[in-house]
Amino acid sequence: xxxxxxxxxxxxxxxxALDGASFEVPADVDCLVLLGASGSGKSTLLRVLGSLLTPxxxxxxxxxxALGWTDEAMLRQRRGNGFVxxxxxxxxxxxxxxxxxxxxxxxxxxxxxxALHQAHETLEKFGLAEHVKKRxxxxxxxxxxxxxxxxxxxxxPGLLLLDEPTSALDPVMTQEVLDxxxxxxEDGQRTVLSTHxxxxxxxxxxxxxxxxxxxxxESAPASQFFDQPGTDLARHFLESLTRYR
Amino acid sequence: xSPETKPRTLLAEVFWNLLLGLGMLLGIWxxxxxxxxxxxxxxxxxxxxxxxxxxxxxxxxxALALIVSVPLGLLLxxxxxxxxxxxxxxxxxxxxxxxxxxxxxxxxxxxxxxxNALGIAKPWLPGVCLLALFHSSYLSEIFRGAWESIGAxxxxxxxxxGFNQQQTWRFVIFPQAFRRALPGTAGQMVSLIKDxxxxxxxxxxxxxQMVRAANAQAYTALEGFIPLAVLYILLTIPLSWWTRRxxxxxxxxx
Lengths: 245, 254
Description:
The complex is a heterodimer. By secondary structure, chain A is an alpha/beta fold. Helix content of chain A is 39%, strand content 24%. Chain A has a 6-stranded mixed β-sheet, with helices on both faces. Chain A has a 4-stranded antiparallel β-sheet with strand order 2-1-4-5, with helices on one face. In chain A, helix 3 (96-106) crosses helix 4 (112-125) and helix 3 packs parallel to helix 5 (141-153). Chain A is globular. The mean pLDDT of chain A is 93. Helices cover 81% and strands 0% of the residues of chain B. Chain B has helices at residues 5-35, 41-45, 48-80, 85-100, 103-117, 124-148, 152-160, 165-195, 207-218, 222-249. In chain B, helix 3 runs antiparallel to helix 4. Chain A binds chain B through residues 50, 52, 75, 78-79, 81, 83, 85, 87, 89-93, 102-103, 106-108, 135-138, 151-152, 155, and chain B through 153-154, 156-157, 159-164, 167, 171-172, 175-176, 179, 250, 252-254.
């Protein structure tokens, strides 16, 4: 997917989360990874890319089409995307199958029987066959995040956006979730991922955008970024992440 | 709970209930023994239909006020969250004024003032309206608390799956807020039933009013007040029990 972002600015009150971020990703990239320290603007950039947040200024073109920022345009664009968040954000009053089936029914106009069938299919594919009737509180973090992934992927989104999907998980659960993401990426799912899992990023990324204080410091093919980072900032960041691994 | 512990806890519960019930009866017996009350149940018995008619009126008045107060509470809640300043201010002001005034005062002003000016002579209609208004302003705060307790991450999740505003309300906020508002709402409903006794001051012929009338006719006092308490409890306890059942049904961890 060809992504062109120019001069993106997003402020929260006096805090500037994105301070004129610009980069371009070539069309043959399927998996874009956003890297940077906490507070560098990764999450904000991911949310703006996915039409969850409106930027204060700047523009985004995806495959040559400019994203719109009216409520209707953002809703339409969001409906073509799938999201997974750090803290799962499942609906606590609904079972796993309803978490997946409800958006299929209500947003994507799929009839109830087919929606439930698709929900089961996706959950089974993610190793959750015996948990379909459970509510989120009855599942482990890893299981919840896999349900969240199923919810995001079931409507077959054009773009899957993952915001630090394993930051709230222990190493075993992290691996469960990363295995699934890798499988999706290998199947050609177009993905934008923000993460601190540097080894995983290296494995899955086609392209890396490295942010610092709301500015894009580097935008490069993954192999180039990891092997020969172009800036001291990126080199120090990579070193600090890999020191104890 | 494992199957082994279940009958044992049930037994313990029955035992403690019996013991506490016995203690309460002893307490009541002691009170009446100490005041050496001279009971005349037979003179009140003649007026039993009067009391039951009052009880019926209490049931009807409370039910009407309950039915009106829930939607009115919701309306006041949404009004307080409205983006139009006059609507917001009006609802906020209404809630604050009504909550800040004793129901007794509200009834006196509402009946002898407002209803009088509108030419409404029958006390039950303004009575029901004022009772409903009073409790709806409390309900609106209970509802608002429940509504606003649904966190930003849930709203973001709703947007992320592509829900529009109405779908977010219907599928995400309302079901979760409903569960959180239940205990407070149940308490408010019980209060409403008990507060209906105040309608006696504007001459609504409800239970309290009728018991006083019966007492006056029969030259009795406690003989009327004890059934009075029992008849209110007959309404409030089942209501509490029923709302607990609903709470259980909608239970989920967050």
